[in-house]
Amino acid sequence: MFVHDGRWRLCRLGAPQLSIFRPRSLIAAGGSSVRTFPRRGWAGRQRLSATPWELWIGSARPEIMQGINQRCVYISIHFFVLWCHAQGENHPSPNFKQYVRTQGEVSDQLSRRQVRVYQLYSRTSGKHVQIQGKRVTATAEDGNIYARLLVETDSFGSRVRIRGAESGHYLCMNRRGKLVGKPNGRSRECIFSEIVLENNYTALQNAKYEGWYVAFSRKGRPIKASRTRQNQREVHFIKRLHAGPPPFPNMDQSKHFEFFRFSATSRAKRNRKSGTVS
């Protein structure tokens, strides 16, 4: 390879260095310093070794180097912006379903609980769920006092506690999968998740034992929860309003008004005598 710019003559290409000769003077280009050697004759010519990169840097013009530096800065900024954008895309987006599921499993102890009153109609027995102390069955008729249930919200999700309005016991499920009534419903065994199915029926899944549902047979007897599935008819219920007496005892009684007689005033007596009506 030969390079000639009017001042340099490249005589021999060495690997990995170049042997450079200049008739009048010798210039060593290395880093930021440039050294010039005066001519001492052909016999006194000195040999100078330089790499191709040092040769290119030493022979480059200042305006060219300035343009190259600006391009390098621009390219560096461009790659930095692309890297930041790639890092933002690689950051995983929050899983809102997992967040809602996690928050729904936490009991809300600060907010005021919302209480709803209704009956649970069993699809298999054709009767309503009733809580008579520790005994839980689905044999109550419409409007039965034991079929009136108070459903308390446990979290902002669909988790509820079911309590009998007459007995005061909560619907719970023990570790054997049996439905029982307990006076205290603070444990997770007494918390159920309301699941609205595609056929508009409602299934009640226990919060502690996942996959166990409230179910009753055709005779209204509770079924062991470990044998239940969501698609079974035994776990399907319908919410119905209670048709029994109203919750306030004074509403079903007619109000009686009593009239009291007071002595007539002097003006009323004068009006009676004159025959005018005041």
Structural notes for this entry:
Its main location: secreted. InterPro entries: Fibroblast_GF_fam, IL1/FGF. Belongs to the heparin-binding growth factors family. It is found in: Secreted. Keywords: Growth factor, Secreted, Signal. The chain is α+β, with helices and mostly antiparallel strands. It has a domain at 115-240: Trefoil (Acidic Fibroblast Growth Factor, subunit A), CATH 2.80.10. Helix content is 20%, strand content 27%. It is built from four helices and 15 strands. It has helices at 52-59, 62-90, 96-104, 266-274; strands at 9-13, 18-21, 25-30, 33-38, 48-50, 115-122, 128-132, 135-140, 149-153, 159-164, 170-173, 179-182, 192-196, 202-206, 237-240. The protein has a six-stranded antiparallel β-sheet with strand order 14-13-10-9-6-15, with no helix packed on it. Strands 1-2-5 form a three-stranded antiparallel β-sheet. Strand 1 and strand 2 form a beta hairpin.
Please specify the SSE layout and strand pairing:
Layout lengths: L8 E5 L4 E4 L3 E6 L2 E6 L9 E3 L1 H8 L2 H29 L5 H9 L10 E8 L5 E5 L2 E6 L8 E5 L5 E6 L5 E4 L5 E4 L9 E5 L5 E5 L30 E4 L25 H9 L4
Antiparallel strand pairs: 1-2, 2-5, 3-4, 6-9, 6-15, 7-8, 9-10, 10-13, 11-12, 13-14
